[in-house]
Here is the input.
Amino acid sequence: MSQEILEPESPPTAVRDRRFSLMVGSGVIAVVLAVAAMTIPVPYVIESPGPAINTIGEFNGKPIITVTGHDSFPSNSGSLDLTTVRLTGGLPDSHINFFDALKSWLTPSQTLYPAELIYAPGISQETVNSENSAAMTGSQENATAAALTALSIDFESNLAVASIPDGGAASGILKPDDVLLTIGGQQVTSLSVIQTVLAKGAGTAEELEIRRGGEDMTVSVTPKKNSDGKYLLGIALQNTFKFPFDVKISVENIGGPSAGMIFALGIMDKLTPGDLTGGKQFAGTGTIDPQGQVGAIGGIAQKMVGARGEGADYFLAPAANCADVVGHVPDGLQVIKVNTLQEAYNAVSLIGSGGDGSTLPTCK
Here is the structure.
């Protein structure tokens, strides 16, 4: 008996052509989407761990911190590492694509941010570099002031005009870099002195003694009331210092204010005999003001990863960053919470001298 083998009926030619066209079309769309994902920028910034640099060591064969005109002492062992983050994307001349963003989102040591949270719209890389450089310079000056204050070394400190917005009370009267000496007969030692005199005057004109280009002069400014009811001169202020000796900090391609605390510790180590670290490896981050207050910074999770990757066992973290520290501490890294430069110095000194650092405050 013969058996008839039935073959499936072929679809009509029109149906086959339609299916083929759909397949080709889907393939083309997939290719277009893949190319777009690889080439079209997305408005995000990737934050990843950057290098850690030993501030009491050398950079490109030269000491990072040098002191001229005062006794200084070499650091023979250990490290006080400044920590950094690397930002990619979000600028007209630096962008990432969809796959970059997806990879970052899946990488635990990286954080993905909308670009508008990091940069002002339309800002250029050149402007960012300039702002970071200025912040680094200010950080180094504040670090020197904080270190000398902690070591009870006298220096001259003044408040000067940083900028004057158009339409402000002092517009056309004061100039950038004018040093404020007195206001209303009161010596200008801090911002609070200015605020107290202006509040007491309630809008009356105030006599200011200033130093401009090395020459002392007196000007009169009538403050204006802002929306909060406070009387203001309409100026932005900056600290200026005259130190009794020269402290130079040399690092390249690193900007921002977040290395201030570590710079201050490095300066204190240079100005005192012995090795502060006792040969141990510390890292940290935090802004510093001339009085030694440690302030919060960004990217601390990535900085801890970078520090541990460079071998640090101890990390000095600003108390104000504790919420960002918890849950992100790499294995083997002890985080020490600090509010001031003195607290940071005491912690390093304790551990460096062989003391028990296990009871030092940490982020919880």
Notes: The chain has eight helices and 20 strands. The chain has a mean pLDDT of 87.
